[in-house]
Amino acid sequence: MVQSLSPALARRVALAAQGFGRPVPAVPGIRQLDALVTRLGLLQIDSVNVFERSHYLPAFSRLGGYDKAQLDRLTFAVGKQARYTEYWAHEASFVPLESWPLFAWRMDDFRERSARTPGAWSQGNRPMLDWLLAELADKGPLPASAIEHDANKRSGPWWGWSDVKSGLETLFRWGDVVTAGRSRFERVYALPGQVLSQELLARRVHRDDAHRELVRRSARAHGIGTAKDFADYFRLKTPATLVAIHELEDAGELIPVVVPGWGPGGTPGAAWLHRDARLPRALDAAAVLSPFDPMVWDRARALRLFGFHYRIEIY
């Protein structure tokens, strides 16, 4: 018989999995920051810098005051010191370096979508893409602003990407370039072989295996969640997520449960509990959260967990 968990316990499980309710160190350092980001699996990046950039806030919410330079050391480091890189995980995110091969299927999907979409930018700008690859091969890692080209001129409102920036971001999505840290928060681009180890570059992960591992990490970061919850964390499709969930269930890593009120119209809803999730009898935590914090970035989940209904208009 499938176990039933109360909404209150499910809420505590979710909070504990995200690192809330733990003792806060007097002076959080590299070790605590690294453990936190590893537990979360990612830190979402956003260009909005009013008050504070979004990726700094989850650590403050869970650890209290810390030295931002320590987090920069973790997330911006390159070469042998690197522990993290960037890719489109939830959205643009810092992820553990060893996670990079888990997104090769997404890089392939981006490339294939560009090839089959009429009018895609990359189709009419192949010479630019080839030139950018050659420029990075010749000069090494560079931010877009340091690349000299007649087409490197901002245009239009908002970000106003130049063709150089559009080309670099296209190559980044495809995995043909990667990040080599940031300079004044501007992404620095490099060829993979310039900053990633040959061991990492040689690692190949089948799409199904990658989905299963990403769902495993999502479930650990959630503690408890629905298939949609687990899918959203790394922006996976629900059908593929369900396949991975059932494989992890068969392996004993996920335990099927129901939570009253989590289904349509307030009915009991199907969910899965990670086998290592803490089930606190009580949890006391108070924190300010960024809208880009994984605890609340899924508004439907925030409503289900906390009765918290909110909307955000930002662009």
Question: Briefly, what is this?
Answer:
Helix content is 41%, strand content 13%. With 315 residues, the chain is an alpha+beta fold.
What does the model show?
This protein is of the alpha+beta class and 315 residues long. It is built from 13 helices and ten strands. 41% of the residues lie in helices and 13% in strands. The strands form three sheets. Strands 1-9-10-8 form a four-stranded mixed sheet. A three-stranded antiparallel sheet has the order 2-4-3. Helix 10 (207-222) packs across helix 11. The longest helix is centred in the last third of the chain and has 16 residues, at 207-222.
Keywords:
315 residues; four-stranded mixed β-sheet
Low-confidence stretches: none
Q: How many distinct beta strands?
A: 10
Report the sheet-strand fraction: 5-15%
Integer average pLDDT: 93
Q: What is the count of DSSP helices, taking H or I runs of 4+ residues?
A: 13
Strand arrangement, largest sheet? 1-9-10-8
